[in-house]
Amino acid sequence: MSTPRTIAFLILALAAGIFTNTATAQRNGFGLGLVLGEPTGFAFKGWMDSRSAIDGALAWSFLHSTSFHVHVDYLIHTEALTKRGDMPAYYGIGGRIKTGGRGSDRIGVRVVGGLAYYVPGSPIDIFVEIAPILDFAPSTDFQVNGGIGARYFFR
To answer: What is the pLDDT of residues 16-69, one digit of tens each?
Structure first.
């Protein structure tokens, strides 16, 4: 793990320890955190209702060349796969813009699927996801992103 990633992870862990209270990372509020993988950066999630949310990331992509990556997804959550209220599966669709790398500027559509875990007794969720991407500009290309992350939810 690189030094910036290690520092960011330690800051998130420290903040979680300081700000953890009796609230739980339920299906409301707005969360900020980190995602590690492809891409790596800052993750956010805002609940619209008890099943749907908007999430995204401001991150860096290291695939082919270093680029700035922004994505936003509309998500639906379900317990149908896990049968657990504290670990829902989710799926959704969104868009992504990747820019800044030599020849790597892209605009595409993401189809995302993942699993979240709401840490009991805290306003934190941990997630893992995979997202096939179909870029359509400047040319058609197919990629797959994936990552693991955590968010702290503010109310």
So the answer is: 444 444 334 567 899 999 999 999 999 999 999 989 999 999 999 887 778 999
Amino acid at 57: A
- What are residue 38's phi and psi, to 5 degrees? -125, 95
Q: Cα 16–144–36 angle (5° rounding)?
A: 20
Preceding omega of 138 cis (within 30 degrees of 0): yes
Q: pTM of the predicted model, to two decimals?
A: 0.80
What's the length of the chain? 155
- Which whole-number Å values give the CA distances from 62 to 27, 37, 53, in the listed order? 32, 9, 27
The upper half-sphere exposure of residue 138, i.e. CA atoms within 13 Å in the direction of its Cβ, equals: 4
Pair 44, 57: CB distance under 8 Å: yes
| 130/67 Cα distance (integer angstroms) | 19
What is the DSSP secondary-structure string of 10-47?
A: HHHHHHHHHH--S----SSSEEEEEEEEESEEEEEEEE
